[in-house]
Design brief:
about 130 residues; mainly alpha; 5 helices
Length: about 130
Amino acid sequence: MNRKVTKKQFIEALENNEDRLTHQELAKELHITKEWFSKLFKRYRDAIRDAAIERAKALAMEQIENLRKNARKGDTKAAKVLLEISLVYHQEVTQNIKSAGVIVVPGRLPIGSPVGKNSPDNGADNKKIGDT
C-alpha cells in the first residue's frame, strides 16, 4: 500500500465522493490502508471541514445567482424564494444583534461628551467643550 497521499489528494477524494463510498472503499481507491485513511482523516479534520464549508458556500452562491437570473426574466417563484432568503437572513442578523446585547461602533466620542469615569483624563476640571 502507498502512504504517499497528499493533503490535496485526500481532501479531493472526500469531496468527489459522489458515489457515497465508505472510508474503507475510499482507502482502497487511494491505495492506502483503512488505518492510514483514519489517521489522515484525523490529521486533516479542520481542512476537510473548511473545504466542505467553502463548497457549500459556492453552491449556495451559484443557486442564488441562478435564482436572480430567473427572477430578472420574470419567474415569480424565483423572486419569492429570493425574498424568503433575504427575510431569513435579516432575522438571523437581527437575532445575532439582540443576543450580543450592545452594538459597539468604533470611533471617538462626539464633541461635548463627558469623559468616562475610567478615563485617564477624569478629574475635577473635566468640562464639556464650550463650558467656562
